[in-house]
Amino acid sequence: TKTICSNATALADFDFLSTYQFDPNNLNELKDKIVFALNDQSYPIENYKSIINERYNWSNISDSYKELIGA
Fold it and tell me: What is the pLDDT of residues 32-46, one digit of tens each?
C-alpha cells in the first residue's frame, strides 16, 4: 500500500519516506502528496518494505536497547 505520513509525528523518523511526508497543518500539501503518491508509477514500495524490515525488527531493536542500557 502506498503511504504518505505526517512530518510532525514520530513518523518523521521514517527519513526514507521524506518524499511522501507532509505538514498536517497544510491541507494543500496533504492533497498534493496524496495525488503524487497515487500517481507515482515508480513508488518504491519494495525498497521501503526492506528498509522497515531491516531497521524495525525485534532483533535490531533489542540489540540497540541492550547497548543503550549497557548490558
Answer: 999 999 999 999 989
